[in-house]
Amino acid sequence: MKEHETHFGRAAKRLLLPAMVLCAYLIVTLTGWVNPYLIPPPGQIGQAFISMLLDGSLVMHILISLRRVFLGFFLAAGIALPLALLCYFFPLLSEYCSGLLHFLRNTPPLAMVPLLILWFGIGEGSKLALIVLACFFPIFLNTLNGLQQVDHRLLEMGETLELSRKEQTLHILFPEALPSMLTGLRLGFGYSWRALIGAEMIAASSGLGYLILDAELLARTDKVFIGILSIGSLGLLMDYCSMKGLEKAFPWIRGQV
């Protein structure tokens, strides 16, 4: 009972600030304190939302953005995770790569847009490359840090038990470094959503980023709000579902990611 009350209390605290923001929004829009062009009233946003649902445009933009986000994220994870393992097992490789990696980490992905267009064209390649650049480093750095923080006494115990390198990796390194790896993947996925807007400003004709940019050009503030709310809601939903799935699959990481 006490655990249920604690869970309810945490949920109430998380919902308090959004509820206050929602109340303030309703007050300033329904009383006419602000220009409806700057902050459209809920009725206008609701009508635009229903219209976009009925004509299928919102669903189309969401599906295209989801495809780009997932492709970019999995590409980044497919590069970052093996590279982190290689840098852990071969410290000399880490020393050679550190300069270039630090340079790229401190370069905003949006600054690379002109080069990405030159190298990959204005199609999907440049958009995916931008998302990969944005979410690569949280995954790589957290994974490498997690591997480096594994207790060396556990590795020594594995050597005492005559475990092979593969067995040590599977039974000691991975379980110990898993919370950091999953934290990196979680952060990387969040960064992929952040990069989506910049990616879909590169000669895109669809996607939530394109929807927001096109609505701005057409002075449709209500559609801008719909695009922003769609990105935030989808990000929250997928983060929540992924966390619940991970906690069920790996119960020992609860509270560590």
UniProtKB/TrEMBL annotation:
Subcellular location(s) per record: Cell membrane
Keywords: Cell membrane, Membrane, Transmembrane, Transmembrane helix, Transport
Positions of the ABC transmembrane type-1 domain: 62-247
GO cellular component: plasma membrane
Topology in membrane: Multi-pass membrane protein
Superkingdom, taxonomy of origin: Bacteria
The keyword Transport appears for this protein: yes
One annotated GO biological process: alkanesulfonate transmembrane transport
Listed transmembrane segments: 15-33, 45-64, 70-91, 103-122, 128-147, 191-212, 224-241
Coiled-coil ranges from the UniProt annotation: none
Cross-referenced InterPro entries: MetI-like (IPR000515), MetI-like_sf (IPR035906)
Chief localization: membrane
Similarity comment text for this entry: Belongs to the binding-protein-dependent transport system permease family.
The protein's name in its UniProt record: Binding-protein-dependent transport systems inner membrane component
Organism (species): Sediminispirochaeta smaragdinae (strain DSM 11293 / JCM 15392 / SEBR 4228) (Spirochaeta smaragdinae)
